[in-house]
Amino acid sequence: MASVPSSSSSSPSQPKTRKKPGQNSSPAPPPQTKWRTGTQERLYSRRLVDALRATRDRTQVQESVGSRAVKEAADSALALTARGQSRWSRAILFGRNSCRRKLLVKAGGKIRRHRRKQHGVPPVAAEPGVLKEQKVKERLRKLGRLVPGCRKLPAATLLEEAADYVAALELQVRTMRALADALSAATVSAPEEEETAAVDPMAIAEQGS
Amino acid sequence: MSSRRSHSRHSNASRITEEEINELVSKLQMMLPDAPIRRNSRVSARKVLQETCSYIRSLHQEVDDLSEKLSELLASTDTDSAEAAILRSLLMQ
Questions:
Q1: So what's the ipTM on this one?
Q2: What is this structure's pTM?
Q3: Taking CA atoms, which of A48, A127, A170, B34 is between 20 and 30 Å from A39?
Q4: Secondary structure class of B49 (helix, strand, coil)
Q5: Cβ B14–A125 below 8 Å, yes or no?
C-alpha cells in the first residue's frame, strides 16, 4: 500500500488519449494519468449520475435535494471510482456506510473529536532530513487534515494519498461542472423542446452544414 | 546530508529514503496548477505542501459550489429533461 512505484515519472500525462483497461495491475500508474483517462471520467460520471438519481429519489417525498447531499453523493461516487485502492477513498466509504461515530472512534479515522492541534509529541516515523524541519511538519499535518482519513500517516504515504486525492478532486470538479452545464442547458431549453426533438436539430446543425 | 533516524520508533520497516520523499514532493508539485514547468526543484518542500493545501481547499470549495448549483438545477428541472441532459453529457465524453 505504501510502495512507491519505480517507474512513476516515465511519461508525461496525456489526458484522454491513454486508455488503461486493466488498472488493477500491481504497478500503479501515477495519479495524474490515472485520473485523467477517459475511462475514469466515464466511470465517475456514470457513478455520479447514479448516486444523484438515488439521492433524488430518496428525498423526493420530503424536499428537494440539498447541496450537502449532492456533495456527499459526489464524494461517495469518487471514492467508489477509486475502488478503495487509496486510503482516503476507504475513509470516505466507511464513513458513509456504517454508524460513523462508533466505528471510526476505534479506527481513529476522520472523526474530529480527536482534534489535537498542538500536542507535544508530533507523529514521527522514519523520516529523512528535509522533513525534520518544524514548518514542514506543520504543513504535513495540515495536509493530513485535509485529506480524509489520512491524519496519522507517515510522510511518504501521506504525500502519495494527497497526490491521488488532488487528481481525483480535479476529476470530480470537471465532471460536476460538465454535468451542471448540461443540466443548465437543459433547463434553458426544456420548455421549448421535447426529448426526441432535442437531439435532432443539434445533430443536424453540427453535421448538416 | 545526514538523515537522522534517532527518533524513529517504528524503525526502518518501510525504509523511506529521502530520494523517495523528494520524488513524491515533486510529483505533487507537478500536479499543482501553477505552471510546474518553471519549477526545477527550486521550490522547497514546505512551499509545495502549502500550495497543495490551498489547492485542495480551493478544490473543495469548487465542489461545494458545484454541489449547490447542481442541487438547484436538479430541483428546478423535471425528471425527463434532467435525464436527457444527463444522457447527453454522458455521451459527449
A1: 0.72
A2: 0.62
A3: B34
A4: helix
A5: yes
